[in-house]
Amino acid sequence: MVEDASGIGEAVATALAEHGASVLCLYVDIAGALDTAATITEMGGEADAGQLNILDGEAVTAAFESFNVKKGSLDIVVCTPGVNVRKPILEYTDEDIDRVLGVNLKGNAHVIQAAGRIMISQGSGSIILFSSIRSVVVGPGQSLYAATKAGIVQMVRVAAAELGPSGVRVNAIAPGVIDTPLTAPIKDKPAWYSAYADRNIFKRWGEAREMAGPTVFLASEAASYVTGTV
User: pTM value?
Assistant: First the structure.
């Protein structure tokens, strides 16, 4: 589990533990990963935590290999981190571009590579990446973020085709507007918040816990014939 230590990452990690998974929470800020692992342990689940920056491909490989050796297999990998810099594309700096492209594309690629190598060797596994509604619909200030989330979808499809013959499934989840720390800048502006809610059938934002069900499904044998999907 490579998580964002709050919001969707925390909700997904907890749900997988509730369904019997032995969870390793990994995040660039180890304090957040430790908090999630502690929550899981307190509810009777099995969890550990570690620090990981998914921009470091060698570190991602080392973390997954260590877990594989310790537990005997690497069955499920879920990657939830995402970065957005909300500003018009003409105002993006090179630093902004590198940050968004780095985490959202390079980081997710590292996760697929490291998990895929182990899962191919064992002949099974489920990799789940998080895209976004921005992969199909856009708005002002979402240029690089939208591009990377669409890129994740295509990366998942290609990885599914390449790894599928070895028994490895690769899928994506594309949430709508979810109440998380990432969307806090929107929530802090009532008119902006309401505008998003009003466009939704349920007239509200989604909650992080509502991403747990789809993730558990894709991770489980109930989705044994599902790959390359969003």
Answer: 0.91
